[in-house]
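In response to a reviewer's request, we include the raw inputs and outputs for one of the modeled complexes. The two entities were modeled together in a single run.
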Amino acid sequence: MFETIAFYLFAALTIGMFTITVMTSQALYALTAMAAGMIFISAFFFMLGADFLGVIQIIVYTGAVMALYAFGMMFFDTTRNIVEKRENPRIIFLLGVIAATLVVFIMISPIISSNLETHYPIDAAVGNSQAIGLILFTKFLVPFEVAAVMLLVAMIAGIVLAGKKMDKSLTLMAEEEIALMSATKPNQDSEEGAH
Amino acid sequence: MEITLAHYLVLSSALFAIGLIGVMRRKNLLMLFFATEILLNATNIAFAAIAHFHNDLTGQMFAFFVIAIAASEVAVGLGLLIVWYKRTGKIDLDIMTSMRG
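The model returned the following structure tokens for the whole complex.
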């Protein structure tokens, strides 16, 4: 009974938050609704007995990913409304409904659900975090290391891409210097291209 | 009434559909990234639900790797987005027609 109430409550909250994220024209509303939706999703993980996954969801998604988006939005002008050109909103909703029914049919099809077998059963005597650690560092060690390398590559790529011209602080420069820098920038680019 | 696997899968499908509508509807690239995050979260719910109801930890492991991929996607995507914004001053999908597609 309690689980049923919790499920419907958090389902309504999550769907509402993500609908705001998708439909709003304000970037800050979208960001905060997204962060709230992420936290509500972690409630499902706790209900499903995946405690470690729920904690990771809060720490990584709400703590790291959303903070990264917030830092990224400092670069963009987010105070004004986002103007988006829309062609045929009906087609989009029609396609969304078709996709949703397709996904439901795929999920409930008996071909898939009856052919599932258990590879790594959940042991009730061992806690969730301990069981995940045991399987992650024995059966899934190679994917884990590959994921670590992928995160390292992503980190270096992020630094290289976003860190260009970070040594010049626009807030500490005079207005003339900024105008000079932006005026000479195209010439520099063309010179670099010539070399 | 008991909550079954079908409840969680229907919820996951609904969230996935919301994310798909966002991907098709948005023209601002930052908002497009938000919609892809919704898609990844919807699949994570399905993974965790199947792991719980089939008494198997593999679904949770896949959810972890999905989270790792989402984190690296955000890092690289935001880096590219900042470079594009410094160059053009806009993050609109409609002006990205340098390949004449």
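As requested, we also summarize the result in words. Chain B touches chain A through 72 residues (CB under 8 Å). The radius of gyration of chain B is 17 Å.
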